[in-house]
Each structure stands twice: as structure tokens, then as C-alpha cells.
């Protein structure tokens, strides 16, 4: 812990990394898995024992092709932090493999379509009058038909409630979206919403990016810039930290050093400037600085996709709105920790975790299912950093795989989120009836609890990242437009360029 006096960090060797991109060898394996999964998707309407055996037998074969991609360091994007993309692809493939080969081994999900009241057939083209529709199951398309081809693509690509982006006006979805789509229609009916009164990105629903006032967008953009700038400054090799009321603010450039030394008294700078550089653990930072660092990482995660989606939606208005689901739905204003993770954070990944949880023992028990979902979320993030944790010379075996799957800090953080949700529910259920009338106090307490559960265990998540020495200036510069262009061209940047 650093409190007001100069501390020289222990010497650490540079992260061993190949700055030469080499991701093309992974493409054949990825294409093989995708094409084989697509073939299995086309067979899902068949519930015969033969096809069930074929789907089950496909699991070990596809897993043996996809899993090694996450650990093979010869396959690289030329940057340890950019390399997170490779195990992320592996994880996405594995979730689909589990879903199609195991969860749907007996047969796949039925397609659903929108019906108007008292109609015998679904509508040909969905209109803006969402309140008039009821979503019902329809028959599987016939084999060797265009409809079966489209069904296979939908099963392969749909990962969240809503309708398909392929031929979107048809309003096609799968049966696991039925509840969400019908609940939305009922919500609009209850609130007397006319079709012309519903903006395409209405905030009353789950589907689509909520309408965002200009000032809110500007504030989010500013917050995103501050988050990235704060992390970049902290990662500078010669970073100094200035103590302001116990909070250490990173100052990263020679100009900023000279500026602060010029305007502040020499006695102040001698006592309150600390040469630290890139920390390798959260314990090297003062408490308040660590909390700000955790918040900055979280802000960078959800503000960047939201910012990019907002830019896309300036030029593209999804019609119908049910074919687009924003990744993040105003997480900072979530009323509780449960609502944050269920409705506001990485919506496109939730079904992956549910599928992985469904193969675990006793997963139909609600409390265990919640813990399983967050456990697999921790496993996903552990795998993303696995090649930085596992020895480069280690052969892919069961111990190596387990070591890559379990990063103690990351798994502990996510499991703590599940425990936080269960504890909040238990406390709310145990409250005396008279106390439940104080809704404002309860709402305030739930928000305080949400940020406590996020920021407290979040230090374990950040500590795992810092220990891997990926928060350095050279590595973060690998995400500039120029360096990403060099990566696509197969050229290095930075230290070895």
C-alpha cells in the first residue's frame, strides 16, 4: 500500500509476447466447427434416436477442434490483450456446441411467428403495431426447403431473445423468445400504447437501444474518454500518482509532470508524488485509487459498446425493433444487482451461460442455477486470459484445461455476484411487512448494495488482470486505428515493428 512516500516497485521482466500477428491458422478450424454446427442445426427438427446419437457424438469431436485454439500461443493477434479475441471465439463456439449437441440432443427449438387475434396463420410481414400480435409456435420447415435453411441459420446465430436479423420483417424467432415477446406485447397493451406512439427504440421495452437525449450521450462519451484516459495514464511506465484527499490520480506524460511540479510547492511534490509505474497488483494502489481503477475498468467495458451502438443507430433504424437488442441497457441506473445482470449487462451472452448451467447437476433448483450461471461467466473470463496464466510449454491436458478454466480472482468475483443476488432476495423476503412500505429507502439500499457487490469483489477481478501485466502502454496502444490496421495486414506494431 502506498501512502505519501516514494516506493520503488520490484523489478519485473517484460511480458513475453509475439508482436507478429498470426491468426490465419485458426480460420480453418473455426470454419469447420461453424459448418458442422450448421449441418447439425438443419437436423434439429428430427427427434429420432439416430440423430440424437450423431449430435452427442459430435460433441467430443467439435470440442477437440475448438478448445486448443484458446491455448495455442502460435495463434496470435500480435498483442496479449488483443489475443483475448481468440479464446472468446473458442468460448462462443463451445457454448453453441453444448447447446446443439447436448441441450438439443433430443431435438431443437420450435420456430415462433407473430399472429393477429383469431388468425390461423402468422402474418407475412410484421408491422409497427406490436400490441396486436401474439407469438405462437409454428411447424418446422420441411427438409430441403428454403425455410429449413433459414431455420438452421437462426438456430446458429440467435443468442438472445428477439427476432432474427435475417429477413427481419418476417418476425421469426425461436421458442425460448416466446415469453419475452408476449410479455412485451402485454406491457404495451396495458399502458395503452398505440403503434404510432411507440418510438422504434422505446425505453419501455427490452428490444432496441433506448432513446438517449443529447446531453446523456455527451456525458457517456465524456465518461468513456475519462475511463480510458485514466487507465492509459496508470499504465504509463513512468507514471506518477498525485495524492488528492487520499485518492492517487495518475499523471502520465513529461508535460503533465512538469506542469504539476511547476504550479505546486516543492514540499508538496516531494511528499505527494509517488513514482509507481504500472502496478502488478491492486494492493500496490491506495484504497480509493483501487476503487476508481475498478470503476474505470467497468466503465470502459460498458461505455465503449454503448457508444459504438449509438453511432451505428444514427444511420440504421432496425425494423422491426425486436430484431435488435442493445448490449447494455443503462446499467448505472439499474435498481438492483439482479436487474443489472439480467437486463443491463452483456445481453448477448446471457443465453450462453444459461445453456452451460443447464448441463450441471440439480440446475433446475433456482439458487443453484443462479450460481452456475455466474460460475460459467467466471470460467469464460478465465479462459480469455488462460494463455497468460498457463505455461507456454504446457501440453493441453485435463490439468492444463482446468488451470485455464479457473482464475481464482475472476471466478470469485462472478460467484460473489450470484451470492449478492441471492442474499438480496433473502433479505427482501425476510423484511417485516411494515418495512416494505418504505419503498424509497429500500430502493436506495438496493442501489448501495449493488455498487458494494460490484466494487468490492471487483478488486479481485482487476487484481487478476494487473497480475498478468497486460495494462501497459505498449499493449494498450495496440488498439489504435493504425495498429489494428497493421494487424489485419499481418504486420507488427510497437516493440518489434
Q: What does this protein look like?
A:
The protein starts with 25 loop residues before the first helix and ends in a 9-residue tail after the last helix. It has helices spanning 26-43, 49-66, 68-71, 85-103, 146-157, 178-190, 214-234, 254-263, 266-272, 287-315, 337-344, 350-358, 366-384, 386-389, 398-405, 408-430, 439-467, 473-476, 481-488; strands spanning 111-116, 133-137, 173-174, 240-244, 247-251, 273-275. The relative contact order is 0.12. Helix 2 runs antiparallel to helix 4 (85-103), helix 10 packs across helix 17 (439-467) and helix 12 (350-358) packs across helix 13. The strands form two sheets. Strands 2-1-3 form a three-stranded antiparallel β-sheet. The protein is mainly alpha-helical. It has 19 helices and six strands. The protein has three domains: 26-107 and 328-496, no CATH class; 111-208 and 318-323, no CATH class; 215-305, no CATH class.
